[in-house]
Design goal:
With about 375 residues, the chain is of the alpha+beta class. It has helices at about 1-25, 115-120, 155-160, 255-265, 310-320, 325-375; strands at about 25-30, 40-45, 55-65, 75-85, 95-100, 105, 110-115, 130-135, 145-150, 165-170, 180-185, 200-210, 220-225, 240, 245, 250-255, 275-280, 285-295. It folds into three domains: about 25-150, Sandwich (Jelly Rolls), CATH 2.60.120; about 170-300, Jelly Rolls (Sandwich); about 325-375. The radius of gyration is 27 Å and the shape is globular. Mean pLDDT is about 80; it is low at about 1-25 and about 310-350.
Length: about 375
């Protein structure tokens, strides 16, 4: 009897282990933008696609490339991060990088382990890494694949308050003076709702300034044009101006608390655009923004899988082929159908899960009874 029970518990443990193994998250990065190079960057992976703070102790990164005959890896990883050094740039720190060599290379695949990544970063936080580059090592190569195995999912990052850094390279920056705006950044590049109490925004710029200027040469501006949350909104508009807490002739640091004061609330869901502009002290041209210690937003999480039947799929194809003249009516009808069908689908999913659980328990019970009978006969 005891042996049968032990076998039964062993079976249950194995099933549990399988479920835990399946839960490990893997990330595959799109490499269609990769280029061939012999001494530069073949592929750059932003924290939006894969954040270093997703890495665990057993994480491995596998990089595939066009070079397959080398004994040593023809590629290396370069981690780009913000080095928060209190002795550099008046305490603001500076951009820095760390190189990581492959732990193994075979058949065109270079494998990098977490231990090497952690060692390369030293005391710097994973949350300060804003991009990972695949760089060539003395041979012309093209990155054809980039996979990270056993990493935290975006959902786990959200649940456990795991933060990450973001690098924003603004589109079409311009030189300004006399209170102009050098850059404008929309929510597609920088969603201010992702900021936390720990967030710093650091602006990098070139400047033509007189000596001993009385105040900072740049300012950070939060704009909303259809605002429903800020007490400072006038006719739905907010133009919140923020002065840096630290600055020099090429860099300025803005603190989250000052942004909340300028905007009027920590709910920044209505902010549509941010700007970096000059303050009338001289010409400036902003080239980069670094947003440190961001959180994962709920809307960035992958959508829950929806169970649908074949007729529903056929219906969606028909809707896509609807002539433009009836598109509005089709969308309205589809919205009603989706609303009603979603409730049925939720009930179906719950029913299926219950049946699966009951079936698994029943299967284990039957196996236990059979084992008990066999062992009893022996």
């Amino acid at each position: 009897m005891r042996k049968a029970i032990s076998i039964l518990f062993g079976t249950a443990a194995a099933l549990t282990l399988c479920c835990m193994t399946a839960a490990a998250d893997d990330v595959t990065v799109d490499t269609s933008s990769a280029v061939e190079t012999a001494d530069g960057v073949s592929l750059s992976v932003s924290s939006k696609d894969l954040a270093a703070s997703q890495f665990k102790e057993d994480t491995k990164i596998t990089v595939s490339c066009t070079e397959t005959d080398s004994d040593a890896s023809p590629v290396k990883l370069v981690l780009n991060y913000w080095h928060a050094d209190p002795d550099v740039n008046s305490g603001m720190g500076e951009p820095a990088s760390a190189e990581v060599e492959a732990a193994e290379f075979q058949d065109g695949k270079a494998v990098f382990d977490a231990a090497s990544i952690f060692e390369a970063l030293g005391d710097n936080e994973l949350s300060m890494v804003y991009s990972i580059d695949v760089c060539a090592v003395d041979k012309a190569v093209t990155c054809t694949g980039f996979e990270a195995s056993d990493v935290y999912s975006r959902a786990e990052m959200s649940e456990n308050d795991i933060l990450y850094a973001k690098w924003v390279h603004p589109r079409k920056p311009k030189e300004t003076d006399n209170w102009g705006q050098s850059i404008s950044v929309g929510v597609d590049q920088f969603d201010t709702s992702a900021m936390t109490e720990k967030t710093w925004v650091i602006a990098i710029y070139s400047a033509e300034l007189p000596e001993n200027i009385p105040s900072a040469p740049v300012e950070f501006i939060l704009q909303s044009t259809d605002d429903t949350v800020s007490p400072k909104a006038k006719n739905g508009t907010v133009w919140g101006k923020v002065s840096p807490v630290l600055f020099n002739d090429h860099m300025a640091l803005f603190d989250y608390a000052d942004m909340v004061d300028a905007y009027g609330t920590d709910d920044m869901s209505c902010v549509s655009t941010v700007y970096v502009g000059d303050t009338g002290n001289g010409k400036i041209k902003c080239t980069d923004l670094y947003v440190l210690r961001c959180k994962v937003l709920d809307r960035e999480l992958p959508a829950e899988p929806v169970v649908s039947e074949a007729p529903a799929e056929e219906s969606s194809v028909v809707e896509l082929l609807t002539p433009p003249s009836s598109a509005v009516h089709s969308e309205a009808a589809a919205a009603v159908e989706n609303d009603s069908s979603s409730k049925a689908e939720k009930g179906s999913v719950k029913s299926n899960l219950v049946l699966i659980i009951i079936g698994a328990v029943a299967g284990i019970a039957v196996a236990g009874v059979i084992l008990y009978i066999i062992l009893g006969r022996k």
